[in-house]
Design brief:
Number of helices of chain A: 8
Radius of gyration of chain A: 17 Å
Distance between the termini of chain B: 19 Å
Order of helices and strands of chain B: EHHEHEHEHEHEH
Oligomer: heterodimer
Helix content of chain A: 40-55%
Strand order of the largest sheet of chain A: 3-2-1-4-5-6
Structural class of chain A: alpha/beta
Number of strands of chain B: 6
Strand order of the largest sheet of chain B: 3-2-1-4-5-6
Number of strands of chain A: 6
Order of helices and strands of chain A: EHHEHHEHEHEHEH
Structural class of chain B: alpha/beta
Shape of chain A: globular
Helix content of chain B: 25-40%
């Protein structure tokens, strides 16, 4: 773990914890990923920090090699198929409203910012960057599903846009453990810092204590 | 080969074939990567199609776990390799990021030329090439990866990206296959 600091203005960005995406076998228990995201959201809200809940409602139009195949068991490349499935599922209109609905266990609040994305990442073609800039956000703390698709694309773009990026490794998952581990070990450390939910909450606590202390000292 | 179509207006996007990067050890012989990119560039130019030569001049400011890198690269590091035979009509894009889209005029340039499909080559598979490919897919382009014109210093990462990521965001072909398809399509 090397989350070195939580900035004064971080934002929590939760990727695609919606009914259509949490469905299906994952490398880690989905309920843990959702619960950890919910814990982080509660802590951010309690301290007046932005909580951005992202869902995916469509996919990119480009031609791809992997086409959605109903019979997933015959697919050798689970990870790529999963990524393509996600896009195809989004494009197909299967139970549309349910598919895009955030899971209730996430505990969405009226004050949360909502972004509906139509691409893998939460930045391209959405008002996310503008919104974060208006709020003076310098750091994004990212969780959600799928590690190597929605989470990673958002993290890559966030890093490119100049944000400090924190990946909360026990608050994310996908259908393929190998893909998850690869992103966590080989990609994320080079574009940001990784940590568990407990570690991030600890660093957030330290930031808030330091702020309170300096505020108290300032008023003496 | 999984490429089904070469569009009317594809563009070639060559990632970071520059002096500071081609001197590093690579999984595949770098001279092959450069030669294949150069062959594709020559063919695209001959057909009057856009050739975009990208180089990396630095890294973003965000804190990372490492390794520590300088934010700006020295002048000789960023120079494109001469084998690419840069021509006046080529589009040069200098980036301070992994991907060639963020913070650059690449998307506007491609749109101005009516480009609908990008063929991507270069280094490194999981960083510059992959971020560019992900962004291209997000920006609505059909993405083609020239499989024998892409490499990395890390074999596991190269294989992982080629097998698990690229097929989900685009199609692929070897340089020979793409050249054949390109020539047949005009």
């Amino acid at each position: 773990m090397t989350v070195t600091v939580i900035d004064e203005k971080p934002a929590l960005v939760v990727i695609d914890l919606q009914k259509g995406i949490v469905h299906g076998p994952k490398a880690h228990p989905v309920e843990d990923v959702v619960a950890n995201s919910a814990r982080l959201a509660a802590a951010f809200r309690a301290n007046g920090l932005p909580v951005v809940l992202v869902n995916v409602v469509d996919g990119a139009p480009g031609r791809t090699e992997f086409v959605y195949d109903d019979d997933d068991e015959n697919d050798e490349d689970e990870a790529a198929d999963e990524a393509s499935d996600e896009a195809s599922d989004a494009a197909d209109d299967a139970g549309p409203e349910e598919w895009t609905e955030l899971v209730p266990e996430l505990g969405a609040q009226p004050g949360d910012l909502r972004i509906s994305k139509v691409r893998w990442g939460a930045f391209t073609g959405s008002p996310l960057h503008e919104t974060l800039q208006d709020l003076g956000v310098t750091q994004i703390v990212v969780t959600g599903i799928n590690t190597q698709i929605g989470v990673e694309t958002t993290a890559r773009t966030g890093y490119e846009l100049g944000y400090h990026v924190v990946l909360v490794t026990d608050a994310m998952t996908c259908g393929d453990l190998v893909a998850h581990e690869h992103s966590v070990r080989h990609i994320f450390p080079r574009l940001g810092e990784t940590g568990t939910t407990d570690e991030v909450l600890l660093m957030l606590g330290r930031r808030l204590s330091a702020e309170r202390l300096s505020a108290e000292q300032g008023t003496r | 080969m999984t490429v089904t179509t070469i569009d009317e207006t594809p563009a070639l996007v060559v990632i970071d074939l520059q002096k500071g990067i081609v001197t590093r050890p690579s999984v595949h012989p770098i001279e092959d990567i450069v030669a294949n990119s150069a062959r594709l560039a020559a063919a695209f130019r001959a057909h009057g199609l856009p050739v975009v030569l990208v180089n990396a001049a630095g890294t973003p400011a965000g804190r990372t776990e490492g390794p520590a890198r300088s934010r700006e690269f020295p002048p000789d590091f960023v120079e494109l390799v001469p084998e690419l035979d840069e021509q006046p009509g080529d589009h040069l894009v200098t980036k301070m990021t992994w991907g060639a889209f963020t913070g650059t005029p690449l998307h506007e340039t491609l749109q101005k030329h009516g480009v609908t499909q990008v063929v991507v080559t270069g280094v490194a598979t999981q960083f510059g090439v992959e971020s560019t490919a992900r962004s291209a897919h997000e920006h609505g382009y059909h993405v083609v990866l020239a499989t024998d014109a892409i490499t990395s210093f890390d074999e596991t990462a190269h294989d992982h990206t080629m097998r698990n990521i690229f097929p989900a965001l685009g199609q692929s072909g070897t340089t020979d296959e793409l050249l054949e398809l390109l020539n047949r399509s005009r």
